[in-house]
Amino acid sequence: xxxxxxxxxxxxxxxxxxxxxxxxxxxxxxxxxxxxxxxxxxxxxxxxxxxxxxxxxxxxxxxxxxxxxxxxxxxxxxxxxxx
Length: 83
What we know:
Mean pLDDT: 81
Number of helices: 2
Distance between the termini: 32 Å
Number of strands: 0
């Protein structure tokens, strides 16, 4: 039977990790860092053309940039392997 360490005490309101955006946290041995900066929200009307393809290279570049930012933050927090 597996044994696990509990990191909360079953508060009826739930649990938090980090009390504010400046508190440093990490997972899986990563170096603790503060909250990652916001990633711009993309809308389908500005990125997609008729449900297929990108209207402009700027729309494509914005989508790639947003995805890369998400990947960076997952790696930085230790929630995704960096290699």
